[in-house]
Write a structure and sequence with these properties.
Rossmann fold, Isochorismatase-like domain-containing protein, alpha/beta, 6-stranded parallel β-sheet, Isochorismatase-like_hydrls, 183 residues, two-stranded antiparallel sheet
Length: 183
């Protein structure tokens, strides 16, 4: 029998307007994540909040102890929900995330958060490699404009490219509405 957990990755203040590293559409993404969170809580499913902090004080964002590094109020953890602090894009690297999931018998992960092209990608690939069945709720994930070799990559294209790659071999991709209807 499968057991599902919701993994909310890095929905932190610095990614919102007026933060240090604003992502495209972050308010709408957080609203969708909040809907997923409410559904998981109502179903009694495990919820794991991932929070990123950089270890160096000159970090561009998510400085340890700063307001920007706090989890955004739209998805604030409640008592009993697990919060995993990480220092790398991959939520499993040098954390006890896998142990927490395994001790709780989790087999399936529903993943949302930020950034699509970095931490969501890294965590989803690692989770799939560990054998978890992954579902990424793509409209509950955010990216930002990127640049490569002098070429601007708009956030919507970065997000789409990474979701496409994840959907090819690592995860089932769904919208928030479709996920909630099927749950």
């Amino acid at each position: 029998m499968s057991k599902r957990a919701l993994l909310i990755i890095d929905i932190q203040n610095d990614y919102f307007p007026d933060g240090k590293w604003t992502l495209s559409g972050m308010d709408a993404v957080a609203d969708n994540a909040a809907r997923l969170l409410a559904a998981a809580r109502a179903a009694g499913e495990m919820v794991v909040h991932i929070r990123h902090e950089f270890t160096r004080p000159e970090a561009p964002f998510f400085v340890a102890g700063s307001d920007g590094a706090r989890i955004h109020p739209k998805v604030t953890p409640i008592e009993g929900e697990t919060v995993v602090l990480k220092h790398f894009p991959n939520s499993f690297r040098e954390t006890d995330l896998k142990g927490i999931l395994d001790r709780n018998g989790v087999t399936d992960l529903t993943i949302c958060g930020a950034m699509s092209h970095m931490c969501v990608d890294a965590a989803t690939r690692a989770a799939a490699d560990f054998g978890y069945a992954c579902t990424v709720v793509h409209d509950a994930c955010a990216s930002r404009d990127l640049e490569f070799d002098g070429t601007l990559v708009p956030a919507v294209h970065a997000h789409s490219a990474f979701m496409s790659a994840l959907g090819f071999a690592y995860a089932k991709l769904v919208t928030t509405d479709d996920y909630l209807v099927a749950s």
